[in-house]
Design a protein that fits this description.
single chain, 192 residues, mainly alpha, Arc Repressor Mutant, subunit A
């Protein structure tokens, strides 16, 4: 059976460190493409090696990235994500205003990232093979649920996604590629 995704429930210190644009991008890049050097990450993200190295060390200090000794070649310092998934809940930081602000920033950052990914897909879709255009989907649903029902629905969808993750990790198709699947269930704000 394929390994379970490594998951971290961000503590207050980790979320404060991660709530930085370059650090969030560095962690995401390591998760997308695997281990890399600071030089390579700087090239991909359009930043300088010094800033990249500094922010990688900040992420390492709180256990979000690790040096990857297996990838090391000579004096090169390779980095990898310590986890596949970061989990946080704003309410977990109720006694730490800075951590709550960091959670708010990360939530907004994730939403902007989602919008950016969707827009990038739509710009590139005409150049994609027809089968990928047909497979990609965007749906929105309006349901009337209470909080318990919404939590149950989300848990059920997570289980379906995890089942597919395990199946495809065990036997990836030859034409498989990374797919970004976002699940963002939220109640509609109360109308006054």
């Amino acid at each position: 059976m394929p390994d379970e995704p490594r998951q971290v429930h961000l503590d207050a210190r980790q979320i404060r460190v991660l709530a930085h644009p370059l650090r969030a991008r560095l962690l995401a890049q390591l998760r997308y493409d695997g281990p890399a050097t600071a030089t390579r990450l700087a090239e991909v993200l359009g930043t300088n090696t010094g800033a990249t190295s500094y922010h990688l060390r900040q992420l390492a200090e709180v256990g979000l990235v690790l040096e990857d000794e297996r990838a090391r070649r000579g004096r090169e310092r390779w980095w990898r994500a310590a986890h596949d998934v970061s989990v946080w809940s704003r309410d977990a930081y109720a006694d730490d205003p800075d951590a709550m602000a960091a959670a708010d920033w990360l939530n907004s950052y994730a939403a902007r990232g989602l919008a950016s990914q969707v827009e990038a897909w739509h710009r590139a879709a005409a150049r994609e093979p027809a089968e990928w255009r047909a497979a990609a989907d965007f749906s929105d649903y309006i349901l009337t649920l209470n909080a318990e029902q919404l939590a149950a629905l989300t848990k059920e969808l997570d289980a379906v996604i995890e089942r597919h993750r395990r199946q495809t990790a065990a036997a990836p198709a030859p034409d498989a590629r990374q797919v970004l699947l976002y699940l963002y269930s939220l109640p509609r704000p109360e109308q006054s």
